[in-house]
Design brief:
Blueprint lengths: L1 H10 L3 H22 L16
Length: 52
């Protein structure tokens, strides 16, 4: 997984832009996940904090 992220970072000269994109995607995933969850709970996360 980290190798893929490193390759993506190489394609972008502005790493701040990449961080912004990643953060925005995580926020969208959490919002979308809470909307489609019948109980309204956020997306479950593993103990290490990564998305399941």
């Amino acid at each position: 997984m980290h190798k893929i992220l490193n390759r993506v970072l190489l394609y972008f000269s502005d790493k701040r832009l990449v961080k912004l994109i990643i953060l925005s995607m995580l926020v969208v995933l959490k919002i979308f996940g809470s909307e489609i969850s019948p109980t309204g709970d956020p997306i479950p996360e593993a103990e290490d904090g990564s998305l399941v």
